[in-house]
TrEMBL record:
A Pfam family the protein falls into: dCMP_cyt_deam_1
Stored PROSITE patterns: CYT_DCMP_DEAMINASES_2
Species per Swiss-Prot/TrEMBL record: Actinomadura mexicana
InterPro entries membership: CMP_dCMP_dom, Cytidine_deaminase-like
Name by which UniProt lists this protein: tRNA(Arg) A34 adenosine deaminase TadA
Domain named CMP/dCMP-type deaminase: residues: 3-120
PANTHER family: CYTOSINE DEAMINASE FAMILY MEMBER (PTHR11079), TRNA(ADENINE(34)) DEAMINASE, CHLOROPLASTIC (PTHR11079:SF179)
GO MF term set: catalytic activity
Length: 141
């Protein structure tokens, strides 16, 4: 981690402060291009948007997938005030970003946040293979 990485992490922490000041959970993130330009910034808006997916990391991943070509996305770094949760990690991987740098780890966050985590939802399957494969067969060829 470079001093420049730490400067961008400080900006992510500022965005977390901004989120908290506006009544949302205190998390912020930014996306930086290969030349060190800040391409986009976000903070958590789960409460203000009424959207459980409004984590800054996922919002930036969606923005990158929509607005950047794959080589550009792969050359970006996401700086985030806390390690991305599982939901955001999936979005980041699908968006093809190049790198993530975080301040607090999820383990460190858990020492500051009572409770934490959500109950697992039972999943049942597989079932109806012949019927379920029909809309998929041939799609990826
Ligand atoms: Zn998340």
């Amino acid at each position: 981690m470079t001093p420049q990485d730490e400067d961008f992490l400080r900006r992510a922490i500022e965005l977390a402060v901004k989120a908290r000041a506006s009544g949302d959970a205190p998390f912020g993130s930014l996306l930086v291009g290969p030349d060190g330009d800040v391409l986009a910034e976000e903070h958590n808006t789960v409460t203000s948007d009424g959207d459980i997916s409004a984590h800054p990391e996922l919002k930036l991943a969606r923005w990158a997938a929509r607005e950047l070509d794959p080589p550009t996305a792969a050359a970006t770094t996401m700086y985030t005030s806390c390690q991305p949760c599982d939901m955001c990690r999936g979005g980041i991987e699908r968006s093809g970003l190049g790198r993530v740098v975080y301040a607090l780890s999820n383990e460190q966050l858990s020492t500051l946040k009572p409770g934490g985590g959500w109950p697992q939802v039972p999943q049942e399957g597989p079932a109806l293979f012949d019927e379920a494969r029909t809309p998929i067969e041939g799609f990826y060829h």
